[in-house]
Amino acid sequence: MEGSLPLHICHVNPLSIFINRSHTFIHSIALALLIYYRASFLSQHPKTSATPILPWLLVFVAELVLSFIWLIGQAYRWRPVSRTVFPERLPEDDKLPAIDVFIFTVDPNKEPTLKVMNTVLSAMALDYPQGKLHVYVSDDGGSPVTLHGLKEAWRFAKWWLPFCRRYRIKTRCPEAYFSASNDDDDEGFGSSEFITERKKTQERYEMFKKSITEVKERGRLGDNSRITAQDHPSVIEVIQDDSDDKVQEDQENIPLLVYVAREKRPSHPHHFKAGAVNVLQRVSSVISNSPYILALDCDMYCNDPTSARQAMCFHLDPKISPTLAFVQFPQRFHNICKNDIYDAQLRSAYSLMWCGLDGLQGPVLSGTGFYIKRVSLCGSFIHEDVDLTELKQSFGSSNELIKSLHGNYEPNAINGQQELLKETQVGFLYDSVAEDFFTGFILQCKGWTSVYCNPSRAQFLGSGSANLNDLMIQGMRWSSGLIEVGFSKFCPLIYGPPRMSFLESMCYGELSFFPFYFLPLWCFATIPQLCLLNGIPLYPKVSSSYFVIFLFIFLSSLAKLLQEILFTGGSFLSWVNEQRIWMMKSVTFHLYGTLDGIMKRIGIKEASFVPSNKVDDDEQLKLYEMGKFGFQIPNIFLVPMVALIILNMASFVGGLVRVVFLGDWDNMFVQVFISFYILVINFPIIEGMIIRKDKGRVQPSVTLLSAMFSTIFLLVGSFILHC
Ligand SMILES: O=c1ccn([C@@H]2O[C@H](COP(=O)(O)OP(=O)(O)O[C@H]3O[C@H](CO)[C@@H](O)[C@H](O)[C@H]3O)[C@@H](O)[C@H]2O)c(=O)[nH]1
Ligand SMILES: [Mn+2]
């Protein structure tokens, strides 16, 4: 019987588990020996050595921090799983629950209206029973351009949706559909009827496009000069037909489309995206109040109309659904090229870490591309006898909203309700600019679980940060948001273990302290080099048996990374790229993000959310496609990278001279090698400084400034060492 067949299955890969656990075990022993080596040196130090203690301590601390992050990161490798779904086994259409889609946009300049509308259209065209899909667009910019775009999109949808449905089009984002070569398995493909229909639809799409670009070029619509992105009243509008367009018969089956611009006043904190999510949650609860919500960033269009049904394979499984809060799909990007120098695809997160989490208590909420159960966002206490005033304090004064909270979707496996009643707010949480990460963490602390669904066809596609500048700005926001959680009373390593599986809380801990990579990487890029130039050894002699330990740790980590990359579809090139970008990120935005997060925590800085840029920059794109770094980034990011490279060039050359003339190989080999390795991996920076002549090179003035910083560091450092 159909009903008894599972809707999904979960696969465990015994080979990966075996490799991972053995590696963790052996590598841990090596790290323990390293720590023993450092600690015993320190305890014997005063009697035996001429080596100053400070650089040793710094390198030791760096090694400890790195080992710690590595250790908690092993939780991802404990039990990675993958999943397969069987949407064809779902119940009949009339038994499927309704879904509200939330789409967020904030700035029509950074987020081109046409792109946003393509996302809206792709969501409206999801393959889901008619009348059970409602689309809400939150416009934090309060821009008439977006509202106008939405009206046009609605009109175009009346042609687009029937076309997609009739021919079962797979790519339902019109821009992607019309710019790609045809999917020849679309139904009716090649028939003359299809060809004429397609042509007609494309013409309408061109008209729609024109109406949007024209408005953009003309600038503001109407006389709204007093309305700004930061200061505007609320607008809620259900998009409806106000034209006399002759329509096709099935056009009434267009999902409800609602425009929402929440009120914003400069005096009032609006909490960025988290605030927008919560407003949509409230607005939708009095309009359609669907039990499930799909959240999408404005650039993340639906690349496969079946995602809703795939998600329902989990949500409708009675075995897991009582505790299941959300089904997360990976963020994938349409602008990634094969040689992804920036690791814009975030490979390790979406092909490794999330699978690891999925084998524990579920993946991290990732901001976009997830189907969440509405009730999980409503706090866990709504079904207890809470009095009305208390509810209104949390949810606002709407009686309709309060009524809507008493839905029939009862979660029954939530722990620690009383305690959380005191500590949590409702909906998305405001305490971090990584609101998705933080909200997901707290949900899981309440006992909710999640599932990671990563089918081979990308369900959602967005614009990845494929240039250095965007990468830095976005990375700094993420680092700052993660550190904010790490340094709060919700620190996953302390708040997590009593409330969720220990391994799961290790993963959350790893993520929230991830930006701390800045510390070991800064140390490894400066201290051994400074000491090398001053003739101070920091590592065991090549002839010593401890040398083998260091060598093993180095090779074992690199080999493990290579194995993971090859197992998840990457290449040798990705292995080099990922190491490089890790070094670059660590010495720049992980450092700044950490400082930013700490400053916010202690209250000397206000939270901010600079949205990432979704406008294609042709020049940058060309560089990225050629595998060349675009170094047109602010000095604050570029100078540290260049200064460290210059420092390493100096120490490598100085070190070589030293070992050649003084025959100090045995003592200094490791330090010479560290500089060498850093230079090899970061060759593109050297190339940018010395060889390249294009616009994206490192400008000579930057090289000069960086050289100055390196010199100052060497002088001051050497002075301190000799004191
Ligand atoms: O005040 C704001 C700021 C942003 N957004 C929207 O939030 C989304 C994400 O912003 P984006 O600039 O694209 O940030 P990313 O760094 O690309 O996004 C990742 O990181 C964010 C947290 O930092 C998450 O909210 C996102 O879901 C996640 O994809 C976009 O649709 C924005 O329009 C708002 O609605 N209001
Ligand atoms: Mn984004």
UniProtKB/TrEMBL annotation:
Positions of UDP-alpha-D-glucose binding: 110-111, 140
Which Pfam family would be a valid example here?
Cellulose_synt
| Domain of life of the organism encoding this protein | Eukaryota
Write out the GO MF terms: cellulose synthase (UDP-forming) activity
Listed Gene3D superfamilies? Spore Coat Polysaccharide Biosynthesis Protein SpsA, Chain A
What are the record's GO terms for cellular component? endomembrane system; membrane
Q: What processes in GO biological process is this protein linked to? A: cell wall organization; cellulose biosynthetic process
Q: Where in the cell is it found?
A: Endomembrane system
> Which keywords does UniProt give here?
Cell wall biogenesis/degradation, Glycosyltransferase, Membrane, Transferase, Transmembrane, Transmembrane helix
Question: What topology does it adopt in the membrane?
Answer: Multi-pass membrane protein
Q: Where is the active site?
A: 140, 436
Which stretches are transmembrane? 24-41, 53-73, 507-527, 547-576, 636-662, 668-690, 702-721
Q: What is this protein called?
A: Cellulose synthase-like protein G2
